[in-house]
Amino acid sequence: MQALRRILALLLLVLFLPGFWALLSMNTVRTTVVRTEFLQSVLADSGVYQQVPALVAAQVAAPLRQSDLPLTPGQAEAMVVRLLTPEQIRLLADPLVAGVVDWLHSDRELPQLELDLSGLKPALARELPPLLRARWDALPECTPQQLRALAGTAANSRSLPACRPPGPAGEQLWARLSQELDPQQLLAPLPDRINLLQPEAAPQAMAHLQHLRNRYQTISRYLQWQWVALLVWLGLLGLLGWGRPYSPLGWIGTALLLCALPLLLAQPLTGWGLDQAGARLAAGVPGPQLAVIKPLLGLTAGRIAAALRLQGLWLALPGAAAVAAALVLHLRAQAGRPPAARG
After folding, report:
1. How many angstroms separate the CA atoms of 306 and 207, rounded?
2. pTM here?
3. pLDDT for residue 69 is more than 70
4. Which of 39, 122, 210, 340 is the most exposed place for a label (fewest CB within 10 A)?
5. How far apart are the C-alpha atoms of 276 and 12, rounded to whole Å?
6. Whose CA is closest to 148, among 165, 127, 128?
7. Mean pLDDT value of segment 93-115
């Protein structure tokens, strides 16, 4: 009968151990990652906020290039990058992160993944006049032939000429142009909000996020019972492995150590898992955004691995103590038995 109980305990240990590896890992990831403070910290430390201004600048400059703004694409983007600092991006992004975390725990619609740039327009309007003046001053002086052509054509009030008339005539032309080049009108095509997902990629990415939330909420409901399940499992192992008073300690300690082992070796596992998530996400995210996300995933993998190792340590310590106690009790019991009984 005792041998049968040990076989059953061994089967219980082998069959349920992978499930508890998964439960402990998922619960640690859930309680670590899906927190507003964690995500905001990872975004700040991964350098994402340093890369976002250039990404946003390209989207901001696109409608400006289609308008009559007399700036080159590079000048328009440089102006936006100079005004949109990483600190401002963080202030704009923190509420988005909090909204996404709240969305994961609710049945509400996903908040719009947009940056509110309405506060950027006044700064751009102040920046434009000196920038336009610098571009005007950089124009070459008109040749006599260009002056005749310039005098014979109607001045386009929304663009700079190819050359600058010398002397007072140039200043008079600039005075007229500067009145016509109204910064507010030039910036009218600029949207107040920038969507972080490009329109062609948004449906796929949104579908992936919705699927992720459904899976997360389903798993969370089961994970609420993981510690109860773990205690029941350990209790059954102790009962089935009962042979001598110290036997349950050995079974329970061994189970805890085996649960802790993959958590202590978490770095390659979490790196592989997030690589797979990144590959799936790449299908719905354009290249520039993906270049920002990849270092974010790398830093997240490292922090998840650290949390998993800490969880593994908390399991390994009582497990090692239980195994050590069982071994000491076993040796004491052996020492107290007569030599004939030991054999």
Report:
1. 30
2. 0.60
3. no
4. 340
5. 31
6. 165
7. 80
